């Protein structure tokens, strides 16, 4: 793969919006701990159909309010399925009003029981709408699937659909998580071959709880390689698995950065320690201008 590292590496951390004050203050502590890796931005997920709209907004406001001191941007996720143009317009205006400049733009999945997809069917339509409404105001991230989105007709169709999102106005992409470096490298090559040229940042899922991860991976089409599944199944509980899991994911990150990935996006699940342990293994103490700062594990 030709390196994608034309710019300083981009690191970012993703959270889900906490429920209740206790979880909100826990997340504040997590954010403070993660600040030491100097992420470019903290993103906050958005429940499809608007189910977390207020909590996502509140969490983003806190991150945005702290940004003057931390230098860490707030990046709300915005999914369009089940939403109207009017409601999306309101959300965009609210974020603009707060000075938020980066969005992670998604289709989302219709919650069970909800049948009306609303005004948008695909993320590309949302990207188009945001550009039509707000011009170049937002930096728009979109999702990419090195192991192919589970509902895609074929790998080629998925690639072309990804291209539509890029042509609609995306600035960069974050991938679904994966544990197979080749899947990512070959995906980036295929993107280049069809003229897609934007940073595609690998999404990194630290492994905390194997049972949960296996269930989630089945649903979202992320593959846990057999050797890894078998090794993870051997551990009686998450605590005993931790050192092995951190080692595996650190090695994945190292190989991705060495191969030219433009950064890493950590799916933190609102926990700081796994991401920090991986970061420390990589020897990435501050955002490096280039890979010379990455220590071989
Ligand atoms: C980094 C990241 C963050 C995420 N955050 C959230 C979140 O906060 N909230 C949430 O609800 N979900 C989130 N998701 C999950 C995401 O919403 C699901 O994976 C969803 O199924 C697809 O969203 P998308 O934006 O990739 O959709 P799309 O890009 O619209 O693609 C969805 C499917 O439709 C196909 N497709 C696209 N365009 C067309 C077309 N014109 N004709 C036919 N088929 C087409 C694609 O090939 C694909 O199979 C996230 C995923 C990632 C990778």
UniProtKB/TrEMBL annotation:
<dbReference type="InterPro" id="IPR003171">
    <property type="entry name" value="Mehydrof_redctse-like"/>
</dbReference>
<comment type="pathway">
    <text>One-carbon metabolism; tetrahydrofolate interconversion.</text>
</comment>
<keyword id="KW-0520">NAD</keyword>
<dbReference type="InterPro" id="IPR004620">
    <property type="entry name" value="MTHF_reductase_bac"/>
</dbReference>
<protein>
    <recommendedName>
        <fullName>Methylenetetrahydrofolate reductase</fullName>
        <ecNumber>1.5.1.54</ecNumber>
    </recommendedName>
</protein>
<dbReference type="InterPro" id="IPR029041">
    <property type="entry name" value="FAD-linked_oxidoreductase-like"/>
</dbReference>
<comment type="similarity">
    <text>Belongs to the methylenetetrahydrofolate reductase family.</text>
</comment>
<keyword id="KW-0274">FAD</keyword>
<keyword id="KW-0560">Oxidoreductase</keyword>
<comment type="pathway">
    <text>Amino-acid biosynthesis; L-methionine biosynthesis via de novo pathway.</text>
</comment>
<dbReference type="GO" id="GO:0106312">
    <property type="term" value="F:methylenetetrahydrofolate reductase (NADH) activity"/>
</dbReference>
<dbReference type="Pfam" id="PF02219">
    <property type="entry name" value="MTHFR"/>
</dbReference>
<dbReference type="GO" id="GO:0009086">
    <property type="term" value="P:methionine biosynthetic process"/>
</dbReference>
<dbReference type="GO" id="GO:0035999">
    <property type="term" value="P:tetrahydrofolate interconversion"/>
</dbReference>
<dbReference type="GO" id="GO:0071949">
    <property type="term" value="F:FAD binding"/>
</dbReference>
<dbReference type="GO" id="GO:0005829">
    <property type="term" value="C:cytosol"/>
</dbReference>
<keyword id="KW-0285">Flavoprotein</keyword>
<keyword id="KW-0028">Amino-acid biosynthesis</keyword>
<keyword id="KW-0486">Methionine biosynthesis</keyword>
